[in-house]
């Protein structure tokens, strides 16, 4: 009897170990075996040329990265399972049934795409549909337990918080498109996670973006829209990437450029003459920093970005964005205010900056933040940003709201010389249990500002006057950025000694266009891919009668 009891106990423990050890794909596979393989997708009834009764490895190979046979689904660009992209996964469209739909964006045209799965029986429960969506969202791995089934069960059992209770409508198709990320589940009780996920746009042509309207969790710490540098997207895995809060692994820092950032949901139309430029090869990287202070309910976090577009070359100026960061923070926990300052300048810049937007960012110990225009010696000459203002920068409310910092928009733009730069100053009062330094969680601290600007007149080597103000040359390079060819066109007001050369960012000379005395009047040269240049940033250096300046030139793939 004792032996039988030990055998029974060992069997129970082994079963429990196997349950705990099963991969997320194992759960998904079992759902398909139970609900889909029985009637429609098996050895005798191979509907859709898909046998879900086969082995786990065979089913995985036939699903992940594999095109469906349905012509309408193929025409929409769907894969059966597109790792990291539930909205582009035919499987998710098929199981997201009418009665138990968990995503209003994901529908099925039953006239052209077939019936919902499972066929001729009840829809899958919301919990089970969510397991399939989460598996895809986390990259559809064949091994590993990658989803939080406990939080999913709580959320769909009545202990859930919707971050965006009413999903916003997408822009009309002739005006733009919508990006939807979610759901991301954050357990109750002060849990904090920061995720990244790449978003392929598959643009047919270079576009200009003139407005971004964002809907997100009001308890989010931030949402940032990055654009990955050309060619680096394949080096980042598909699906959600959880950032390591100690070393930053999982982020794309150093391999991206920032497009826009939010700490609160808001509509962000750009000034009418400006736009972001997104080339055909653009891949975005979405960054969502979430925490859930609710003591007993799971946060189901979504983010919706309505992207409004216009044809390329519509805007007069391209809008650029930067984050300027000070990581040298060491704040003692002595309940005394401590101030930190950073002067940021860039002597390599060749054009003035026309500032449109400024905003700040700290964590919970931040008590004030200022941004100042600097002179050439690093002395503040003009206050551009006062952190004591309200979030829309309409009045001074007398305190710094670190969770909803001010966003100042300049109309007209404020022009600075980036060679002189900007100074950021922040104060902190640490009344917590330990000293804090720069870090990636809300228990650490940060000091940075976000700036958006267009490029203005060229900076001369001996000052901040533009080339037109110098009265010697009227210059245009167009298009810029370019894909195949660009034109350097200029007009001399008098006979002049002219030297024009093309350099890469490392200072290597690529080509000399002119080194001669030229007559008064119009001149032009052409740059194209036959000159042996690859995608990247270049500088066209001009020297006219001893005065030199440079124009940045960008070649896109």
Layout of secondary structure:
Blueprint: H1 2-21, H2 24-35, H3 56-63, H4 71-75, H5 90-95, H6 110-113, H7 126-137, H8 149-155, E1 160-162, E2 176-186, E3 191-200, E4 207-215, E5 220-228, E6 241-242, E7 256-262, E8 266-269, E9 274-278, E10 283-292, E11 298-311, E12 317-318, E13 320-325, E14 330-331, E15 337-344, E16 351-361, E17 366-374, E18 380-386, E19 407-416, E20 422-429, E21 436-437, E22 448-458, H9 467-470, E23 473-478, E24 485-492, E25 496-504, E26 509-518, E27 521-528, E28 536-544, E29 547-555
Parallel strand pairs: 1-11, 9-12
Antiparallel strand pairs: 2-11, 3-6, 3-10, 4-8, 4-9, 4-11, 5-7, 5-10, 13-22, 14-21, 15-20, 16-19, 16-22, 17-18, 17-20, 23-24, 24-27, 25-26, 25-28, 28-29
Helix pairs in contact: 2-7
How would you describe the overall organization of this protein?
This protein has nine helices and 29 strands. With 557 residues, the protein is mainly beta. It folds into four domains: 2-147, no CATH class; 172-317, Sandwich (Jelly Rolls); 319-459, Sandwich (Jelly Rolls); 467-555, Immunoglobulin-like (Sandwich), CATH 2.60.40.1930. The strands form seven sheets. Strands 1, 2, 4, 8, 9, 11 and 12 form a seven-stranded mixed β-sheet that branches. Strand 23 and strand 24 form a beta hairpin. Helix 2 crosses helix 7 (126-137). The radius of gyration is 28 Å and the shape is globular. The chain starts with a helix and ends with a strand. Residues 1-20 and 461-471 have low confidence and may be disordered.
């Amino acid at each position: 009897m004792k032996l039988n009891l030990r055998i029974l106990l060992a069997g129970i423990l082994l079963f429990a170990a196997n349950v705990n050890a099963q991969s997320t794909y194992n759960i998904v596979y079992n759902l398909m075996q139970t609900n889909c393989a029985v009637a429609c997708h098996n050895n005798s009834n191979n509907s859709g040329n898909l046998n879900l009764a086969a082995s786990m490895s065979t089913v995985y190979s036939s699903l992940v990265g594999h095109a469906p046979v349905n012509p309408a689904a193929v025409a929409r660009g769907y894969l059966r399972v597109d790792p990291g992209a539930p909205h582009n996964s035919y499987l998710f469209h098929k199981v997201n049934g009418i009665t138990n739909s968990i995503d209003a964006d994901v529908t099925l045209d039953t006239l052209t795409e077939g019936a919902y799965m499972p066929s001729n029986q009840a829809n899958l429960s919301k919990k089970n549909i969510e397991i399939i969506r989460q598996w895809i969202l986390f990259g559809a791995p064949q091994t590993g337990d990658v989803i939080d089934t406990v939080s999913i069960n709580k959320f769909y059992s009545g202990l859930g918080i919707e971050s965006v209770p009413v999903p916003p409508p997408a822009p009309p198709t002739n005006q733009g498109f919508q990006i939807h990320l979610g759901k991301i589940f954050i357990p109750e009780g002060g849990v904090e996670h920061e995720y990244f996920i790449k978003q392929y746009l598959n643009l047919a042509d270079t576009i200009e973006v003139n407005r971004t309207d964002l809907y997100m969790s009001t308890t989010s710490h931030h949402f940032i829209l990055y654009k990955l540098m050309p060619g680096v997207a394949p080096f980042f895995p598909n699906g959600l990437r959880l950032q390591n809060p100690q070393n930053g692994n999982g982020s794309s820092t150093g391999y991206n450029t920032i497009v826009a950032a939010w700490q609160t949901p808001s509509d962000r139309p750009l000034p009418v003459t400006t736009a972001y430029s997104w080339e055909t090869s653009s891949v975005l990287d979405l960054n969502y920093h979430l925490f859930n202070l609710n003591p007993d309910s799971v946060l189901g976090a979504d983010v919706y970005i309505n992207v409004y577009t216009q044809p390329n070359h519509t805007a007069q100026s391209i809008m650029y964005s930067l984050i300027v960061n000070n990581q040298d923070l060491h704040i003692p926990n002595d309940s005394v205010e401590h101030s930190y300052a950073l002067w940021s300048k860039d002597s390599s810049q060749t054009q003035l900056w026309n500032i449109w937007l400024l905003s700040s960012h700290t964590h919970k110990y931040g008590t004030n933040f200022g941004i100042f225009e600097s002179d050439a010696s690093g002395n503040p000459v003009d206050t551009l940003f006062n952190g004591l203002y309200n979030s829309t920068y309409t009045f001074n409310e007398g305190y710094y709201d670190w969770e909803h910092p001010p966003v100042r928009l300049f109309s007209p733009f404020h022009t600075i010389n980036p060679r002189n730069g900007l100074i950021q100053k922040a104060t902190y009062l640490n009344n917590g249990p330990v000293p804090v330094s720069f870090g990636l969680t809300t228990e650490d601290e940060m000091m940075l500002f976000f700036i958006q600007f267009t490029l203005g007149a060229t900076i001369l080597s001996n000052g901040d006057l533009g080339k037109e103000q110098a009265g010697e040359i009227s210059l245009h390079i167009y298009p810029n950025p370019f894909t195949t060819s660009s034109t350097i066109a200029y007009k001399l007001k008098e006979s002049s000694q002219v030297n024009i050369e093309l350099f890469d960012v490392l200072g290597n000379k690529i080509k000399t266009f002119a080194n001669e005395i030229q007559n008064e009047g119009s001149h032009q040269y052409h740059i194209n891919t036959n000159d042996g240049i690859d995608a990247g940033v270049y500088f066209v250096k001009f020297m006219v009668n001893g005065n030199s300046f440079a124009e940045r030139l960008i070649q896109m793939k």
